[in-house]
Amino acid sequence: MAASRKFKNLLYSSAFYLDQLNDDWAKFYDVPLTRDKDGILKGGEACMWGESVDDSVFMPRVWPRAAAVAERLWCADERICPFKHAWAVNRLA
After folding, report:
1. Which of 14, 5, 76 is nearest to 46 (CA)?
2. Which residues pair with 41 in a beta bridge?
3. How far is C-alpha 1 from the chain's CA centre?
């Protein structure tokens, strides 16, 4: 994370664009999150842009992929929270 050398706190969203409609929950679940030695990565966000969604399709386009992002960001340390698809498939598929 080259940006971590310049900034004190980072919010990560570039891998979590929900308007990429070909990406399923597993893609977001597998995003590697790395923190530098100072723990600069403070969190992230899932983003959904209006040109690919309106109120008639919002829920099926956002969920469960946003839930996978939330779970991934909640516990970014895989030594503590191992991310296993077999554990998540019943919740997110």
Report:
1. 14
2. 10
3. 16
Distance in angstroms (rounded) separating the CA atoms of residues 50 and 25: 20
Each residue's pLDDT tens digit in the chain (93 positions)?
Answer: 555 566 677 778 888 999 888 888 888 878 877 666 666 677 889 999 888 788 999 998 898 889 888 888 887 666 656 666 677 777 776
Rounded to 10 degrees, the C-alpha dihedral 47/27/33/66 comes to 40
CA pair distance 25, 92, nearest whole angstrom: 7
Strand positions, DSSP E, the chain: 10-12, 41-44
The verdict on pTM exceeding 0.90 is no
Between the two ends of the chain, the Cα-to-Cα distance in Å is: 30
Task: Say if CB 40 and CB 7 are below 8 A apart.
Answer: yes
**Structure tokens belonging to residue 25:** 């929950």
